[in-house]
Design brief:
Layout: E1 2-11, H1 18-35, E2 39-44, E3 51-60, H2 63-80, E4 84-94
Antiparallel strand pairs: 1-3, 1-4, 2-3
Length: about 110
């Protein structure tokens, strides 16, 4: 099983408040979920009002298809015009290459 992940960082110059920022972030996440078969979440900078970092993940068996899918997500986010995409990164890895993390209690994260 392969895992594709995209990290998309947007700059929100017109965001005046954290509430504005959350509205834009939620709009992007909802639209991406509706259009693509991916999992989406905010993954960093949740208290920064002028930027948002969105992570997207999909699984499959064809690395080219997965990479193309993630690139379509990035282009779609850019086309929304809700913020300027200042960086993006796509990674495709095999499940057995992923390092398992320990949680605070010493157990493995699920």
């Amino acid at each position: 099983m392969l895992i594709a992940a995209a990290l998309i960082e947007l700059e929100l110059l017109e965001s005046e408040t954290i509430k504005d920022r959350r509205r834009v972030a939620n709009s992007i996440k909802d639209r991406v979920r509706q259009r693509f078969n991916v999992s989406v979440a905010e993954v960093a900078d949740q208290d920064e009002r002028h930027s948002v970092c969105i992570g997207c993940v999909m699984v499959g068996i064809d690395p080219r298809h997965l990479r193309e899918g993630m690139e379509k997500v990035i282009h779609y986010v850019e086309s929304l015009g809700l913020g300027e995409v200042v960086s993006d990164d796509v990674t495709v890895v095999r499940l057995d290459e992923v390092e398992e993390l320990e949680d605070d209690d010493g157990g493995a994260n699920a």
